[in-house]
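Margin note: ligand = 5'-deoxyadenosine.
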Amino acid sequence: MGKQKNKFYIRTYGCQMNKYDSEMIKTLLLEENFEEVPTAEEANYIFFNTCAVRENAEKRILGRLNSLKGLKKEKPDISISVLGCVAKHNKELINHPVVDFIAPPDSYRSLIKAIRTKNGKIVPENYCEQYSDIFTSPSNTSVYLSITRGCNHFCSYCIVPYLRNRLRSRPVEDILREAESLVNEGANEITLLGQNVNDYSYKGVNFPDILKKVSEIKGLKLLSFLTSHPADLPDKLFPVMAETPVVAKYLHLPIQSGSDKILAKMMRRYTNDYYINLIKRARALMPDLTLTTDIIVGFPGETEEDFKQTLKAVKLIRFDQAYMFAYSKREGTLASLFPDQIKDSEKKRRLQLLISTQNEITKEKAEELVEKEISVLTMANGRKGQKIGKSKSGKIIALPGVAKIGFEYIIKIYKINGWIPVGRIKKEADK
Ligand code: 5AD
Ligand code: SF4
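Resulting structure:
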């Protein structure tokens, strides 16, 4: 009988970047003959890939670790590793009774050696790490592909640059090779990832150039990207998006605040007017653009007047959707030292008001689609026998069950369910 395989379970918390990193770690483990299992109880190696961007996310992970005390007692030989941002941020983890290995975001290549040799609790980081030669396999028809790691910005509230280190741009050839293999293995949509994709730069190739190059891969049906910092948006980006059919007319552009005073304290390096002008330019070139954003309320020193300016910006710009957060004080960031922190109850009040303002707009924007005919690519099985698709402007659309995954249809939107537009198939789109 052959030797039993090492079984691993991996759970991912947080952003798309973490989801991609988990795919990469899986690739490394599968190459080393490990086998993935669906629950922690079945595994001899447990990995938590963690997020530290807000305190809540970190607390959830600590809660999960505490819940494993019983399992660890019962099976002391299982190996539990905390990966990613909390691994780097939380200095107490070293003493946590269930944690065997602590692996920050730039240490994954050494992780397998560490868990095999049981050598050292903190896996050493490699600050130049690109994971460039690791090619993930599609777990889905819509996949992520990382083009940069780390971040060179130091927005005063954000812990990410301290945990994910400085920006590194992945070589063009490696991005194209991974993208091609993902498409050949069945991916229809690729989303290029970076903390700020606009900072991509490799031997004279900038972000619009790499976007164009990936868009030329045969068989790719939709190309998206996340995230863009408004201050670094290259002039060529909107024209390239507009003129390249496969590029989704979708832009996630975090505004963070509508107050110039708060934007300056956040060290965002743009003003509200600058942001609004960018959006005007984008919408002039791409009238169907889907625009989403991130907003923080209750940043230190945010007055009622500053908050009202954020509400005003939200009403003026009319985002299709927004990810809205109460400011969370992160130890080690500049803003954590600012004196005029806002009370939790006030942050909560502002967040609720912002959410209800934006929800109204999100609903109205979805309703504008009713009776419209659009082209949709079927991506996955949805609930209640429906299929889930994506429009050319990156909107999620519910389709009837007969729609075949990977096919493009012209559909007519006939109603909104929650905020999701629901369509009827008119015909298969011309290939
Ligand atoms: N508090 C609240 N929200 C934050 N974000 C980043 N850091 C913090 C923080 N300390 C939000 C920003 C960013 C998104 C990924 O998370 O809006 O764009
Ligand atoms: Fe954080 Fe700013 Fe970098 Fe985004 S651009 S990861 S908000 S520091």
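The radius of gyration is 22 Å.
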